[in-house]
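Journal club prep, notes for RB
We'll compare a predicted complex against what the paper describes. Inputs for the shikimate-3-phosphate case:
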Amino acid sequence: MTELYPIARLSAMEATFHARNPGLGGAYAPPADKSITHRSLLLAAVAGGTSVVRQALATGDCRSTRSCLERLGILIGEAADGTLSIRGAGLRGLAEPAGVLDAGNSGTTMRLLSGMLAGLPLFAVMTGDASLAGRPMARVVEPLRAMGARIEARARGTLAPLCFLPGTGSLRPLSWDLPMASAQVKGALILAALRAEGPSLIGGRIGSRDHTERMLGAGLGLGVRVEGGRLRVEPARAVPSFEILVPGDVSSAAFFIAGSLVSGREIVVRDCGLNPTRLAFLDVVRRMGARVDTSEEGSSLGEPWGTVRVSPGRLRAASVGPDEVPGLIDEVPLLAVLGLFAEGLTEVRGADELRHKESDRLAAVIRLAAALGGRIEPLADGFRVEGPQRLAGGTVDPAGDHRIAMAAAIAGAGTETGVRVTGIECAKVSYPEFVRDFQSLGGTVA
Ligand code: S3P
């Protein structure tokens, strides 16, 4: 029997995080990129042969994607070193699942897989944990219905569980303007458009992380490209099988980069993904007074990777506006933490999408600061924080949200007494060895 609410219930482990002299830093490699792992698994599942995925992220959200694919009949072999061999079923070859598909805590699994299931000749039901069941799904359901897919969902088509009714395997071409910058929604529509009867055009706010289009276009040579400010997706006869080496996740590395800034010690991040649509946090870190050098050393399936070196300076405030937010969407909680330690007024605007993440992350960072005796001013679409603040330390309850839990631990690295975090296990959703890396980079966890 599958456990439907594992992550939110994992709240037992409490630990205090701090980092005395010399602070958090040194050289290290972050865990594999979550977004690229999801897409590697999904594309391999619909490819025309056996694909090989090296260094995939194996826990949390990506395990949800893997187990959904296995329920859809995909055979996944795993070597001793974690390398995955995935036998693709072709674009229309997923099998009707005998049970419910459980996306766990993972919005990426639910949304991207919706694009792959839409209009297939099968019946499927997909749900997730309590957090995912509260996240908006009309943003994928509506455009997929416009392509002819029959999808039913709770709360008049807006919330999971989602129910996919059998179709013909093909869809109508899509012409759609994205009202929000979301790579999950954009990716879902691209994946569905591969099975359309003609070219699809996706416009509006397409400026989010570009892994789906990059891996399909630059990586696999399929007809997915930006033309006149819109994404044009040609239907594919087949997706070729492939090999990929998943690079490190720059969003996971961002935690220890922030840790190095608040504790004043250099950090070197090796084997790190350097996709340009993921690097806005590094630009902000530069504006906050650090020296940041990146060097590209290779690429796999269109995804560049290399080394990031960050030398902290005197931490000063920075402003981030709506144009920059999509490029650092997962790093916004860290900007709140950095703002508490930086000199001057740090402001983030245009970040209302944060209200629809694993928790309402704008509300969460206000609570995080308050729990430590600090203050962040809430705004409808962001926050303002005047620093530096003297934080008393304290206990943060991240309510099962992995990025809030890790941001709180990183705040601990800048305080005298450290920060206690309840339910730190939820970090496993994106960062299986967060506690180990916190310690090996010079911090203490007690
Ligand atoms: C992701 C897209 C982003 C991001 C998430 C991963 C992806 O979500 O926050 O962690 O892999 O496509 P949205 O598309 O909802 O902005």
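Talking point for the session: The chain has two domains: 7-32+248-445, 34-244.
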